[in-house]
Amino acid sequence: MFETGIFYAFAAVLLASGARVITARNPVHAALFLVLAFFTAAGIWLLLRAEFLAIALVVVYVGAVMVLFLFVVMMLDINLERVREGFWRNLPVALVVGGIMVLEMISVLANRIWGAGGPRRLPADYSNTKELGRVLYTQYAYAFEIAAVILLVAIIAAIALTLRRRKDSRSQDPTAQARVKRADRVTLVSMPSEKE
Asked: What is the CA radius of gyration of the chain?
């Protein structure tokens, strides 16, 4: 019962933070709500006893999203002075998001220690990473490969859409280099010898 209540609380926070990601006008607030959504999803994974997925979600997505957000700020040429001036204005939202994350982690640990049903007994040699790999590459192998192809196509499309040729950039053309003849590169100049 306690675990079910925590799950529903996390699910409500996840839905609310996901909605705020797409409705927030300020990109800083949107990124903070996205981090909250990722931490909440990691808490749900911990409730499902999938520790590897929870850690991967936090390490990969939270780290990658912050790096991506920095790139977006650099590409959009956002006035950083105005963002720094608004630090105290954004501080309450950051404290609320951080407080919710701390409460979620405390509730997950409290459920592990004082949970009603107690921890599920697993064999001593059980590894959920090994089990995840077995299920992913046997039962869901086709879905995994289709997702990989879709992501590859998305990456290529993103590169093709954002590729801009600059007029001042210089690049090598290997075919033109291979077609060059000696007469095109070296010019022999006949000069009279100097006399002392």
From this structure: 28
Count of structural domains, the chain: 2
SS3 of 143, please?
A: helix
3-state helix, strand, coil in the chain (%, to 5): 75, 0, 25
State which residues form the domain around 156: 126-162
Give residue 142's pLDDT band: very low, low, confident or very high (50, 70, 90). very high
Q: DSSP secondary-structure letter at 194?
A: P
Residue type, 61: Y
pTM: 0.49
Count H helices and E strands in the chain, helices first.
Answer: 10, 0
C-alpha 193/C-alpha 196 separation (Å) is 10
Q: Which of 19-28, 90-99, 111-120 has the lowest mean pLDDT?
A: 111-120
- Please, where are the H alpha helices in 24-140? 27-47, 51-56, 63-76, 80-85, 87-114, 128-138
Indicate whether 31 belongs to any domain: yes
| 65 close to 31: Cβ distance less than 8 angstroms | yes
